[in-house]
Amino acid sequence: MTIGIILASKSQIRSELLFKAGLKFTAIDANIDEKEAKSSYINKGYSGRDLADILAAMKAKKLSCEYLDKLVIGCDQIMECNGQILSKANNPTDLADQLKFLRSKSHTLYSACVVYFANKAEWRFIGSATITMRNLSDEYISKYVDDNWDEVKHCVGGYKIENSGISFLSKINGDYFSILGLPIIQLLDYLVYRGVLKH
To answer: Are 24 and 7 a contacting pair, CB within 8 Å?
Structure first.
């Protein structure tokens, strides 16, 4: 019997990664109040790594309650810089300010993936990558935000490494796919082990 797969995410890049890996799945937005949950856990002193794991699990669990016979994949990505957890920018001015804060510094992206089946967590993994930004000029940042806001407004760092955002970075240490928001190598290992993906 083939088990159906649900990706509890509206992220286009996560869907693309799974599709290119040959998986058949349905993408459904888990629709949790991410902002409120995030704020609550940050106030309780949770680390960025733990927060990514908690939010990924919340998304998977919510849809697993509705689709008990499906494998539900929940994902979340958190950015941390100098001990501070950063959120998606609300508007172009916010994004420009965030990029100015990040320039010449290193920040870490934590990408968590949690798989639920029949309302139980079966597997989880948290990937990470530490990225060092170039010393970007105010002019460069302003032009980038003007040209790319619509494309990057849903990205936690305000840039896409797979597009022009690559020009921001001077160094990467860690998992490339965690920058994209899904530690797919480890997820595929699990799906092969579970027998969902045949090799």
So the answer is: no
pLDDT in tens, 45-77: 999 999 999 999 999 999 999 999 999 999 999
A 10 A CB-CB count for 150 gives 8
Give residue-wise pLDDT tens across range 152-170. Answer: 988 888 888 888 889 999 9
Q: How far is CA 107 from CA 85, 88, 133, in A?
A: 10, 14, 8
Residues across the chain: 199
> Hey, what's the torsion of the CAs at 13, 15, 20, 26, to 10 degrees?
180
Q: In which region does residue 14 sit, left (phi positive, over 0), alpha (psi from -120 to 50) or beta (all else)?
A: alpha
- Indicate if 76 belongs to the active site: yes
This prediction has a pTM of: 0.92
Q: What is the largest CA-CA distance in the chain?
A: 57
CATH number corresponding to 5-194: 3.90.950.10
Per annotation, catalytic residue among 76, 94, 97, 175: 76
